[in-house]
């Protein structure tokens, strides 16, 4: 059960909003609802600001905390001062996201799923060998257990398939599959992947991607995707909001 309602599932492009403080602990604030994505599923957390009147402080990290079956969302505030001198429980505050970071994370999380689908097409069953993933502002990667290095031919095939999905401008849908477990699903072109991250709404909003490999130890391989351009998002994202 979630203590804080995640508003980003209703709109990935809501970059500011009002919330009410329900708890203050050391340098952490907890709200009744939030637009901030907490680090999970390999995706790094959102960053941004919390504002109240003349007070404006940085939120430098967002993490889930589990206590007695309840998932709490802790917003870490960047200050050496006591937060109680700025805020009180039940204060209505304004939250503001770092929009560039959110957009890039959403784009690379979307890209990671295309990479995953393409890798599975090249090596059937590779999805069962995933041991980790990491979604950052400038790249996305998957780690696999495998004794076989990805060859240049395989990397080219994977990249071509990823970029074909991008050029085909495929619609993306995310939805809540199981309310009891809060399980969410990402769906595109007939593929469904369990995922609670943030995403773009169409593959065509991505720039073409490059795919690389890296050995990370005996019996382990890493696939990395990065944009072929200076940006990961094609054009002005604002024009794509639906």
UniProtKB/TrEMBL annotation:
The record's Gene3D superfamilies line, in alphabetical order, gives:
2.40.30.130, Threonyl-trna Synthetase, Chain A, domain 2
A GO molecular-function descriptor: alanine-tRNA ligase activity
Keywords on record: Aminoacyl-tRNA synthetase, ATP-binding, Ligase, Metal-binding, Nucleotide-binding, Protein biosynthesis, RNA-binding, tRNA-binding, Zinc
Where's the Alanyl-transfer RNA synthetases family profile domain? 1-242
- Spell out the InterPro entries in the cross-references: Ala-tRNA-synth_IIc_core, Ala-tRNA-synth_IIc_N, Ala-tRNA_ligase, Thr/Ala-tRNA-synth_IIc_edit, Transl_B-barrel_sf, tRNA_SAD
Q: Which SMART domains match?
A: tRNA_SAD
Q: Name one GO biological process term.
A: alanyl-tRNA aminoacylation
Q: What's a Pfam family in this record? A: tRNA-synt_2c
Q: Which domain of life is it from?
A: Bacteria
The record's similarity note reads: Belongs to the class-II aminoacyl-tRNA synthetase family.
Name the chain's protein: Alanine--tRNA ligase
Question: What's the source species for this entry?
Answer: Acinetobacter shaoyimingii
**Taxonomic classification:** Bacteria, Pseudomonadati, Pseudomonadota, Gammaproteobacteria, Moraxellales
